[in-house]
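Predict fold of SsrA-binding protein; 157 aa.
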Amino acid sequence: MAKKKGNIGSSTIAQNKKARFEYHIDETFEAGLSLAGWEIKSMRAGKAQLTDTYILIKNGEAWLLGSHITPLDTASTHVVADPSRTRKLLLHRKEIARIFSRTQDKGHTCVPLKLYWKKNLVKCELALVRGKKMHDKRATEKARDWNREKARIMRAH
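Predicted 3D structure, encoded as tokens:
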């Protein structure tokens, strides 16, 4: 008898919620990650963080800087684990060229939005972003509060 594959829990490993608040998102990309075995085990346990993380394009390769994957005690006994090491992103050359050219424009940068599972692989959703001004952040917060209030009113009636 074949085993049934069920979607146990969410496929999202970590999100960068601060990025959606701090930046206007222009374009998104999906990239693979080059990881070690202990990092995969830690991600399955939910030990990954994307706060204050950014993307660097160097020598035609994309790198994820500032992400933190806490090593498990049981998984990394024989390896010296560096939780905040630089990890390589797997993208097509055209995508890397597009990201590089857009990040050279003033006010643009590239940040990761989330890490998630796609079948048995870890993928990273990247975004080309522009920084928000203070009044844009206030408008975003006001709209979020109004949507929350609308939802409360709809539930009450």
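Helices lie at 17-22, 37-44, 93-103, 134-156.
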